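W.,

You were right to be curious about this one. When I first looked at the sequence I had no strong expectations either way, so I just let the prediction run and decided to look at it fresh. Below is the sequence, 295 residues in total, followed by the output.
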Amino acid sequence: MEMHQVRYFLAVAKNLNFTRGAEECNVSQPSLTRAIKQLEGEFGGDLFRRERPQAQLTELGERKLPLLRQCYESAVSARELALSMKKGEVASLRLALSHTFDINLFMPHLNEVRRQFERLDCRLLRGTAPEVVELLKSGEAELGIASELGEGWDRLDRWPLFTEDFILLVNAKHRLARLPAIALQELRQERLLLRTYCEHAEPTAALLRTHGLDVDHCYQITSESDLMSMLASDLGVAIVPRSTSSPDTLARVMVNGLDLSRPVHLYGVAGRQRTAVAALVMKMLRAANWSRHVN
């Protein structure tokens, strides 16, 4: 099935006349008739009853009309989008973010991209470390921001953005909230909320075990929003990266002896051509001053 065949069919269906349909499409009537016959051959039945002076849609034609109209409109939209992108009128950004990367860190850069590109198609995709890798592999994402993604795929390019330590996040009314800093051992009597989606979940759990903390009976949390809700309800305490945003109802406490840090990288795929938007984002992120967010 060719798009010109679909266009001819829609023109005849609109005018109920082969001659006027050909005029609308700016082709000869024999060419239009031949194209529609080819379409009918693919569908295995007549689309029109050829009655003079008008043509009438058959039952098959009635059934195919909305489907072919949608198909044609989608093709036209896709072509227009491609032309607009070629002219620089539309920009596309597909960015994979780990669940642990705070979106607020990216907002100033996204606003700058929007100023540079008047029309921006933006897709921000969330995932665990393995899911970020798969998004980059498949091409669903052009760039990624995450901590360590492992060494499982040798085509990953990466550039360091910042390294940050971890803090304790507690309810503002919690007994520890009033302290500027605590010893790691003071958490032994607390219910821990462990972020299983974090790239550093296993190293964090291992460190806590070495200090006698009961990690095996903690609450395992699978999303940042759930974590914030649990903390707001004072159902436990959580060790999080320093850059993690938190509401005023929560308190941030330094933990002495928490020998834990994580690097955050920008990732790309080696050998793939990057769009103008991706190139701009790479330049901005690598030149950004991250210290005000993580210190």
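Here's what jumped out at me. Residues 185 and 211 are 7 Å apart (CA to CA). And, maybe more interesting for your project: The mean pLDDT is 87.

Coffee later to discuss?

I.
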